[in-house]
Amino acid sequence: MKARQDEITEEWRGKCCTVEDKFGSTKQVSVLSLYCTAGNIEQSDCLAPLLGGYDWDSLDTKLPEFQYGGATYTGATLLHLLVLKEDIKQLRKRCNKITEECVGRTCEMRQRGRPVIQVTPVSLACAGDATDVLNLLGVKALNSKLPKYCDGGYNFTSATFLHWLAFNNKVEYVRSHMDELVPDCLNATCENFFDKSCGSFSVEKFTPLCMATERGSVDMALLLIEAKADPNIPLHYQHNSSNSVVVRSPLFYAAKNCLLRVCKKLLENGAIQGMGESPRKIEGLDQEILALLDKYSEDSQ
Description:
By secondary structure, the chain is an alpha+beta fold. The chain has helices spanning 10-13, 31-38, 44-51, 78-84, 88-93, 100-103, 121-126, 131-136, 161-167, 171-175, 183-186, 208-215, 218-226, 250-256, 260-268, 287-299, and strands at residues 16-20, 26-30, 66-68, 71-74, 107-111, 117-119, 149-151, 154-157, 190-196, 199-206, 235-239, 245-248. The termini are far apart. The mean pLDDT is 86.
């Protein structure tokens, strides 16, 4: 690119090509938009003539509309892009420029068949899997409140960093912050709305422990129980096509996912079998878990 930079004119920079997506839709995109979609930020020195006046040292630099991961972003900054790419190296290189102001900037995200939403770098990071990215954006304490964010079909509201860690099974990070696992943090609740082919569902009172058992995360669930998370805060689960609400406890999900060790620890720590929907009603319930439920039921009599 450097060898031919004298050939790059303003007219050439503005040229667009036609791109067709997997749905058959076509659109005109510029070279810079393609660079945002697939380029490596490290190449910016080579591409400086191509990028014209864009400042690749400023995280607040506004980028042209581009597509990434099946979504179209409008009004995004360089920080949005680095977070989307989970580019830890470049984020660390610019860590002294990550301010509350640029972390709070929003851009528009459009996905086919979904409403247009406004997203911040933090909400984009929450949809990823990189703890380091969230740390660099200032999310470090387990009780840190997260903005509303989407992760696949899940839409979380009022979640804490601990909810995110439990959802993504980041056991070692939580283990290294055991001193932060106080009752208010352990038992905080969030809401979740998600879509499935059979309809939409909403969940309220989702604790980190309930999240870990619902996800089948044995080590995370055991760690939260060890830290004295309340085993008797059930979630409220509603199919949005009806008015019925189903109440399910961490014990219910541990039994449903055949987590024998987790069931035992929950019962040892006071889990109530009759808290909401009974795990005994689970079709095909593991016989060892059933025997365990019988034992603790007899012990309580």
